[in-house]
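ok so i was messing around last nite and threw this chain in just to see what happens. nothing serious, just curious
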Amino acid sequence: MPLVRPFETSFGRTHERRILLVEVEDADGAIGWGEVTCGERPFYNEEWVGAAWLVLRDFAAPMVLGREIASAKGMGEVTAAVRGHRMALGGLEAACWDLEARKQRSPLWKHIGGGRREIACGVSIGIQDSVDELLELIAVEVAAGYRRVKIKIKPGWDVDVVRAVRERFPDIRLMADANSAYTLGDAGRLAELDEFKLMMLEQPLGHDELIDHAEMQRAMRTPICLDECIRTAHHAEQAIRLGACRVINIKLGRVGGFAEALRVHDACRDAGVPVWCGGMLESGIGRAHNIALSTLENFVLPGDVSASKRYWTRDVIDPPVEVTRRGTITVREDPGFGYRLDLDRIEALSERQEDLT
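result:
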């Protein structure tokens, strides 16, 4: 799926997404759909689309095919022998949750225990070719009603850029995301961001650096939000205990699906740490799953769940995800993830397909 606009982070620029979809069917003919949210290259984490295909085909699928599984919540136990590869397994697990919700004629958000009928939306804006271009893009999104703006930063595109944004938009809810681009040696530079009253600084240090993040958090007033570091509820509990963050971003694929996302959510809620839903440039299927996740009670901050049209000229769901003028998404009541599939669009975009029985 070609992006409407290239999206650049500290680890590269993306022009189009290769997206791996998972469809599951049970003995009654019920269908559920999930999305594997890893990137085209193993840069965000170690997963990538080609590897995820093999993990699903050669390991995860044989573990579940023909098995009687009591509930989607138990999928993790069935595939527990596979270490890591949470995004691959999460796409399969999400499809099973969708199937289960459809069979019970329940919206997925209700099925997982959500209660919000409307979720607040933020927007994530990648690194641009110039500060002026970034400012104009932010102006468009603010005019569209988005309740929070996240900008990507990296060494050489950080303090001065954030200063320019804050001077132009003194009152917006603003955050910065480094995607692990810095080290603890950059603590002095990052602490300069304190003057801009950011909502949070997301994942400034290494993807597996809890202790360094704890030291970084002590060195600055701005709340640190952890993303790549948090793959399980236990990681979240450790980070909170160390003081490594004050906010946690929950990405459905990164933690391996809804069951673990619910455990991370509950651990943060019980510790008084707010969470929000991050995005991975998903198609409408993954975006619909993110909407369901965002209805849980501790998702109190606007997430990266924005309108389909920001990313795709035509999505793979119908209707596309739309954001109201007040910067919210109204949660749908349809069974499962809540949107119709545009099967013609999926077929037209498909590079390959494999049926496993």
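not much to say yet. The radius of gyration is 19 Å.
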